[in-house]
């Protein structure tokens, strides 16, 4: 069995503030240890139900060099490096392909504009107001579920702060295991479980996800194709630059659209457009 793990950082327990999310931050080193341990807990749990399973983990946050390889479970390989379209056109789902059976999303966060959401954003907080798939507003959970769904891979596990649960249940098929790591108070504060507890929950959650997969209870997220992924930017200048990318249409002042026959083609194009939208190449892409 092969399991793909897309790992973000904002939804890891204890992580509530930007200082923890960037390499310059004073508390970043602790946060990346917490992130790595969450991933290991999910791997260990899955292995109980699927001995010999193989894992590919995509580091899916910011500079995408957060997870600590020397601490990662030996059953996993790690996708490391910035999500420049020349490197990682599938962004947080880079490394996934048709050889995988099941996907886990750990450390995920709620979408841009979530009222009172913890560290909420979609893809790039500084640029993106909303992303829509076939007209429906989505966050990174549904975006990446649609990408792995291209290969009929279902999402078995999603973990993050409590408000992400409703978003995930509304936008991806039922059946996945939800693991809440903290209860959000507001944009930069939460009531956090200690890692000793979230590791147990992730371990049990991942084992249950494998059991549900084996019982045929999980469905892949497959938006209707040809598919439209549209990106509404904060500023019209961003949409103008993004529209320079081949295959991108400008829909209105602040919105562009990628239409394609497959979710992966549309997602790749939309990601390229988002990367192009900024005046200068941002540090996290270099
Ligand atoms: Zn992130």
What can be said about this structure in brief?
The chain is an alpha/beta fold and 286 residues long. The protein has helices spanning 28-49, 140-149, 163-171, 195-214, 236-242, 263-276, and strands at residues 2-7, 54-59, 76-79, 102-108, 128-133, 136-138, 155-161, 177-186, 189-192, 227-233, 248-252, 255-260.
Task: Write structural notes for this entry.
By secondary structure, this protein is of the alpha/beta class. The chain has two domains: 2-123 and 139-214, 3-Layer(aba) Sandwich (Rossmann fold); 227-285. The protein has six helices and twelve strands. The chain has helices at residues 28-49, 140-149, 163-171, 195-214, 236-242, 263-276, and strands spanning 2-7, 54-59, 76-79, 102-108, 128-133, 136-138, 155-161, 177-186, 189-192, 227-233, 248-252, 255-260. The strands form two sheets. It has a seven-stranded mixed sheet, sandwiched between helices. The chain has a five-stranded antiparallel sheet with strand order 6-5-10-12-11. Helix 1 (28-49) runs parallel beside helix 4 (195-214) and helix 5 (236-242) packs across helix 6 (263-276). The model has no long low-confidence stretch (mean pLDDT 96). It binds zinc ion. Zinc ion (ZN) binds next to loops.
């Amino acid at each position: 069995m092969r399991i793909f793990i897309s790992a973000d950082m904002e939804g890891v327990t204890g992580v509530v503030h930007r200082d923890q999310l960037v390499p310059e931050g004073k508390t970043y080193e602790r946060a990346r240890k917490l992130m790595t341990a969450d991933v290991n807990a999910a791997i260990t749990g899955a292995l109980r139900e699927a001995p010999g399973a193989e894992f590919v983990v995509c580091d899916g946050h910011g500079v995408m060099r957060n997870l600590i390889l020397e601490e990662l479970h030996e059953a996993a390989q790690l996708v490391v490096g910035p999500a420049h379209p020349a490197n990682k056109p599938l962004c947080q789902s880079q490394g996934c392909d048709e050889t995988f059976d099941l996907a886990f999303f750990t450390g995920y966060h709620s979408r841009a504009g979530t009222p009172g959401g913890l560290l909420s954003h979609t893809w790039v907080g500084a640029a993106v107001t909303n992303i829509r798939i076939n007209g429906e507003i989505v966050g990174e959970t549904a975006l990446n579920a649609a990408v792995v769904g291209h290969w009929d891979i279902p999402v078995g596990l999603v973990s993050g702060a409590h408000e992400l649960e409703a978003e995930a249940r509304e936008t991806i098929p039922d059946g996945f295991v939800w693991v809440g790591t903290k209860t959000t108070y507001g944009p930069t504060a939460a009531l956090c479980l200690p890692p000793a507890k979230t590791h147990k929950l992730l371990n049990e959650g991942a084992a249950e996800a494998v059991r549900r997969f084996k019982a045929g209870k999980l469905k892949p997220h497959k938006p209707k194709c040809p598919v439209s992924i549209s990106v509404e930017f904060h500023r019209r200048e961003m949409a103008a630059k993004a529209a320079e990318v081949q295959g991108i249409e400008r829909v209105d002042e602040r919105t562009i659209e990628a239409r394609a026959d497959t979710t992966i083609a549309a997602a790749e194009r939309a990601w390229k457009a988002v990367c192009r939208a900024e005046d200068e190449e941002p540090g996290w892409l270099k």
